[in-house]
Amino acid sequence: MLRYTLMRLGIFAGCLVVVWGLVYSGLAPRGLGASNGLWIVMLALLLSAPISFVVLRKERDRASVQIVQRVDRMKANLEANRNQEDVADESSRAQGQTS
């Protein structure tokens, strides 16, 4: 998961540098007034999203498999805890009825 996040940030940083270069060279339009920095970040986000979607498909699938496995382990642990509580509750009730 960390690897995917770092790769995604790398793609965004690359797009940010490219957009910054295009804006300051005059090939892309500048933002209005003091909003130029925000304009550059928004353009970089707009470009990096589809690039990340296509380029990082395998890494995203790998990360999602890890997440599913982690969630399944947590569900199994919760179910095991519930079963332990049920057994403890049933045994205490059984002892109460025999007394």
Structural commentary:
This protein is an all-alpha fold and 99 residues long. 87% of the residues lie in helices and 0% in strands. It is built from three helices and no strands. α1 (2-25) packs across α2 (36-55). The model has no long low-confidence stretch (mean pLDDT 87).
Radius of gyration: 26 Å
**Beta content:** under 5%
Number of helices: 3
- Strand runs, count: 0
Helix content: over 70%
Q: What is the end-to-end distance? A: 55 Å
The overall pLDDT, averaged over residues, is 87
SS-based structural class? mainly alpha
State the low-pLDDT regions, or none: none
Largest sheet: none
Q: How would the global form be characterised? A: rod-shaped
H/E element order: HHH
Per-chain topology:
Elements lengths: L1 H24 L10 H20 L1 H42 L1
Helix pairs in contact: 1-2
InterPro entries: DUF4229
Protein name: DUF4229 domain-containing protein
Pfam family, one: DUF4229
Q: What key phrases describe this protein's structure?
A:
87% helix, 99 residues, 0% strand, mainly alpha
Give a short summary of the structure.
This is DUF4229 domain-containing protein. With 99 residues, the protein is mainly α. It contains 3 helices and no strands.
